[in-house]
User: Which sequence fits this backbone?
């Protein structure tokens, strides 16, 4: 009889402690999950900063220029297969002054810049406050890609058309800078800026031709 009483007492104590024990267990599980999440966050690789990403883009431009300098294949040779374009078309860029009309793809990758202009997705979206950068290869074929960008002068208009808006930018600055000069992507917190980037000079490029325009 006494043993049965002990069992009842123990059962009562366990029933009383269950809610608290359950709470302790839930807290313990939550702490484990939080610790795991914090560890995962601390060990994850941070996205590349704008400086390193810009360096990659200007290097891609230089590489494409070197490839373009190679001798053209003979007529009897089979053309090289096209590189697949990975980005989606987000706009159309036009510069009447140099008879330029190009699709603008999202993401300045090697594949995208092989066939079109490419918006650096790390920069401001087109038409918004800040500095939106568009890069393209300066092909040696006259009129292809940004081949004639050096003919643009201050005051010229650059038109960028998206699916729902047309933006007219006026060129206000043109410069030739070192490939490492990421300051060309700076904004001023008051203007909607468009920056066009390509190689300079056309043959054996050592610098980058930069065209800055403001939304008019």
Assistant:
């Amino acid at each position: 009889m006494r043993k049965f009483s002990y069992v009842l007492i123990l059962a009562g104590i366990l029933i009383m402690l269950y809610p608290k024990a359950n709470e302790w267990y839930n807290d313990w599980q939550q702490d484990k999950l939080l610790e795991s999440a914090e560890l995962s966050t601390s060990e994850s690789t941070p996205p590349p900063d704008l400086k390193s990403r810009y360096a990659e883009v200007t290097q891609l431009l230089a590489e494409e220029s070197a490839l373009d300098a190679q001798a053209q294949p003979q007529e009897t040779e089979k053309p090289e297969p096209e590189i697949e374009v990975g980005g989606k078309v987000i706009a159309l860029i036009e510069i009447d002054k140099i008879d330029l009309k190009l699709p603008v793809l999202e993401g300045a990758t090697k594949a995208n810049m092989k066939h079109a202009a490419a918006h650096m997705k790390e920069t401001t979206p087109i038409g918004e406050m800040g500095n939106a950068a568009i890069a393209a290869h300066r092909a040696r074929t006259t009129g292809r890609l940004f081949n004639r960008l050096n003919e643009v002068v201050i005051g010229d208009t650059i038109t960028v058309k998206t699916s729902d808006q047309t933006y007219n930018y006026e060129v206000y600055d043109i410069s030739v800078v070192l490939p490492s000069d990421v300051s060309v992507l700076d904004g001023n917190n008051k203007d909607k800026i468009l920056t066009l980037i390509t190689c300079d000079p056309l043959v054996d490029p050592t610098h980058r031709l930069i065209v800055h325009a403001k939304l008019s």
About this structure: The two ends are 96 Å apart (CA to CA).
